Amino acid sequence: MKSYNPRTGMESLQVTPISKASAKQRAGRSGRTGPGKCYSFGINDLINFDFVDPPRSEALLKALELLYALSTLNRLGELTKVGKRMAEFPLIPMLSKMIVASDQYKCSDEIISIAAMLSVDSIKKAITAGFFPNSARLHKFGSYRTVKHPQNVYIHPSSSLAQMLPRWVVYHELVLTTKEYLRQVTDLKPEWLVEIAPHYYQLKDVEVKD
Length: 210
Hints:
It is built from 8 helices and 7 strands; from the N terminus they run E-E-H-H-H-H-H-H-E-E-E-E-E-H-H. It has helices at residues 20-29, 57-69, 81-86, 93-102, 108-118, 120-131, 191-196, 203-206, and strands at 2-5, 10-13, 135-138, 144-146, 152-155, 168-176, 180-187. It is globular.
């Protein structure tokens, strides 16, 4: 389970005991996604807001403290002019402030490039948008199985991912030497395939299989 410590600002993955039935249920839901809608509501009083699943008060106060330090909120907890500009970016507050401030320092192009590099998932999704036909999932004994036109393949030994073996990858090319090797590989989240290419992939293609 992913856990966030507001005191240290550090995320960690912690092992949490669950029942066997719960584990099977979670495995069955892994990777599933579907169309939906996202609504944004203006909330003026976060402290007393009736959350469905409220965050810990310590984490909430730490977040408000950060937003105030970034000049996103004023002393009344209201969005400032800077905060309204920051809210236009689908990024964490510090990246948003960095982009807004770059206008003052006349370096927006450079800062946007840096923000993109820091937003690794965005880069990977862009790569997936072009190479979604070249996807593979971890199979057995270190091999992979291509999703479309299934065949057993392997990450090339020269790749930094050859030892890490991520569960899902997208690759640039498939070459045959001593084995069928994937070259220029990056990992991805399986739900991206359905999100980016619903005409090409269905939920059954990315569901967990035994």
